[in-house]
Amino acid sequence: MTRASLDKQPHEVASMFDDVAARYDLTNDVLSLGQARLWRRAVARAVNARPGERVLDLAAGTGTSALPYAEDGAYTVACDFSLGMLREGRHRNPQLPFVAGDGTRLPFADGTFDAVTNSFGLRNFQDVDLALAELLRVTKPGGRVVICEFSQPVWKPFRTVYTEYLMRALPPLARTVCSNPDAYVYLAESVRSWPDQPALAGRLQHAGWQRVAWRNLSGGIVALHRGHRAD
Ligand SMILES: C[S@@+](CC[C@H](N)C(=O)[O-])C[C@H]1O[C@@H](n2cnc3c(N)ncnc32)[C@H](O)[C@@H]1O
């Protein structure tokens, strides 16, 4: 297998992330032209984790996305189904509890977490609606979700330039830093075929999340969706 195809067979997705785990964080910084760190700060503000809370970071990869919630004092569980990413994460962030688990069948009881979150993971799920429902199940009544995912730039001329970057510049750039550049062809294609802001909000509502809203980052390259579980 060279890259996960867009039908997103879970074993292919997991194996693709196993392959890129060692250079994953570095590659992110390079390909996002430094924006990834700003996006992560915005997600941390949106999650607003507090001491004593339990937070689930689903599809946490190497744990980079989970660190801010732990630093804010919450008991933070980093869950992912790529053993390669988890291994790299345990090495880099030994202070975090890493759990191997599939986001469509989470190994947690109902109502475990005050907040559940997912950064740049959902796009890779084979069954997004099932994952959104699972996240709702493991959230306490009154708890919250924050989804950070690539989205659609809202200003049309910028959208055109960005799509060109994704499809033409990103794969060659990936070749210079990444061990499996094909994974970044998949990245470009999966971003292009991902639902836009209103469509993802609709999927969250359909899964049962309430008071769903979103905020664009970097002109809509990334969107932060949030919602609440009913009390
Ligand atoms: C792009 S990485 C994001 C990692 C991290 N959240 C971050 O922001 O750097 C996507 C992650 O989603 C994970 N993933 C994809 N499908 C999954 C599933 N069904 N269950 C659990 N993890 C999944 C992959 O293994 C991968 O580590």
UniProtKB/TrEMBL annotation:
It comes from the Bacteria. One of its GO terms (biological process) is menaquinone biosynthetic process. InterPro entries: SAM-dependent_MTases_sf, UbiE/COQ5_MeTrFase, UbiE/COQ5_MeTrFase_CS. Pathway: Quinol/quinone metabolism; menaquinone biosynthesis; menaquinol from 1,4-dihydroxy-2-naphthoate: step 2/2. The keyword Methyltransferase applies. CDD domains: AdoMet_MTases (cd02440). Its EC number is 2.1.1.163. Keywords: Menaquinone biosynthesis, Methyltransferase, S-adenosyl-L-methionine, Transferase. S-adenosyl-L-methionine binds at residues 62, 80, 102-103, 119. SUPFAM superfamilies: S-adenosyl-L-methionine-dependent methyltransferases (SSF53335). One of its GO terms (molecular function) is demethylmenaquinone methyltransferase activity. The keyword ATP-binding does not apply. Methyltransferase required for the conversion of demethylmenaquinol (DMKH2) to menaquinol (MKH2). Belongs to the class I-like SAM-binding methyltransferase superfamily. MenG/UbiE family. This is Demethylmenaquinone methyltransferase. It comes from Streptomyces tardus. The gene is menG.
